[in-house]
Amino acid sequence: MINVEEKTDEELVVYIREENKEYFSYILDRYESKLRRYLYKFIHDLDDVDDLLQNTFLNAYINLQSFNSSKKFSSWIYRIAHNLAINLIKKNKFTISIDENELLAFKLESKISVKKEFQNKELSDQLSKAINKLPEKYKVPFVLKYFEDRSYEEISDILRKPKNTVGTMISRAKDILKNELDQYDR
To answer: Which domains does the chain have, with CATH numbers?
Structure first.
């Protein structure tokens, strides 16, 4: 028996592959709430989110042998969830909703100067609408960065885009949001 808390995700995956597949339940424990929150940003139907989450873990378990343990496991499993979500999004059009607590935690590192730190409900609604207007190619990296707190490198792995491209996409998303919010200030 191993001490799971002392193992990194990557070490745990190696142990699961080589020693005991039942330890995959610890992967579920580590990622269930994180992935549920991420998927819910795009898909607001809890049944759809649960189905996507189940399919994410099923795909991860089935393909665990193909995971490169020299890479970050979190990027790999987010990529699986991302692909499944994008497939569902292509079938249906989903929107992002931001609650006030998330807005207070929202950490834009840009030129966006939003008065009163998003405490205004009307502004919260405007920001949600502005984010939903973003093209998918900008919305996804933006959400990964500012709502899932992923690094540029992780987003690069998840989206399979160069890190510089990810930075450009996030920068463009912030510029679009700034323009939308500037129109709101008028």
So the answer is: 4-91 (1.10.1740.10), 100-185 (1.10.10.10)
